[in-house]
Amino acid sequence: MKAVIVGGGILGASLAYRLTTEGVEVELFEAGRLGGGTSAVGAGWLNSLGKEPFDYHLLNISGMAEYATLAREFGHAPWYHASGNLSWTTPDKDEQVRANADRMRTWGYPVELLSPRRITEIEPYLKVPDDVTQVTYYPWEGLADLTQLVGALAHRASVNGAKIHTNSPVASLVAEGDQVTGVTLVDGTTVTADVVAICTGRWSDEIVRTAGVDLPLAPTLGFNIYTGPAPAVLNAMVHTPEVNFRPDGAGRVLARSAEFDNTVPIDAAVDPIPDVGKEILARAVKYLPALEGVPIEGARVAYRSMPGDSHPTIGEVPGRPGLYLMVTHSAGTMGPLLGRLSALEIAHGERDPRLVNFRPERIVTT
């Protein structure tokens, strides 16, 4: 069996690696650089907060667990940080916070309500406001360096025999009747395959449209800033009412605020840094004072994929045999898991019950 994978982000790289371990011949085509799309600008926050209904929550929990499994498998996993998540809100919402914590516990999701004093033991450089009496701590959550992980997965896939092509955009799908049989590259080259897997995030609707498939998407924008190295140690993801931030390696910090996600267009220039970037940094300084005087090294705009009904779309497209679709908003959390489950389905026909409510037939039309 031969599989062509379109897209070299976290989903495509995970699928490529797992397919090679199942004996499938793999050829992957990435339009730019590996992990250079949404995977390069995502926060890499591994979580299942607010992921509803329960079957979607379960899929995310399974995705979080898959990171620990993959880390053990690889032996050396500098791309995985089981560092938890700290979150607080305004004092008037304390009852709501406790209710949310209780609800998450009923779903088997570890959550603790800690005092600010306890937080200083976990993150000594973090400043919790004086009026905050409790901080929510999610110990199972973590962070992933998605670009680094994409590289590690692609390397292992290549060692196993996969052909990885970068700067090789796919122009269209090739079909014989309803059967998808391969892809055509922008240079006119046709590559045949038994199955074509689409892992192109927010661009997925464009490529499947060439095979007469309509995929409704509702992508969202995100704006991130990246600081220079700061004289502080930060391990966990941190959510505050004004700004969210996380460590980004070598003392750097990634920060964002949902308030400003839609203020910078997807095609806007981010050099020089937009004024909203400076406001995000100012807010982060309140809670991580060591960022005072640290410059912003860069900014990026993310166009995050989102199926029209906000839930993953995973599986063979009905009416288009040979076409396999993988698109989801939570690719960072679920990428390694979905790569493994989809590889088992493509190679051996094993359909995992956790995906039963996330099949393409619920949303795509042909």
CATH classification class of the largest domain: Alpha Beta
Element order: H for helix, E for strand: EHEHEHEEHEHEEHEEEEEHEEEEHEEEH
CATH superfamily of the largest domain: FAD/NAD(P)-binding domain
Terminal residue distance? 25 Å
The biggest sheet amounts to: 8 strands, mixed
- The CATH architecture name of the largest domain reads 3-Layer(bba) Sandwich
At the fold tier of CATH, the topology name of the largest domain is FAD/NAD(P)-binding domain
Strand content: 15-25%
User: Largest sheet, order of strands side by side?
Assistant: 6-7-5-15-16-17-14-18
**Poorly predicted sequence stretches spanning 5 or more consecutive residues:** none
Number of helices: 9
Count of DSSP E strands?
20
Shape: globular
Helix percent band: 25-40%
Description:
The protein is about 30% helix and about 25% strand. The chain is of the alpha+beta class and about 375 residues long. Strands 6-7-5-15-16-17-14-18 form an 8-stranded mixed β-sheet, sandwiched between helices. The chain is globular.
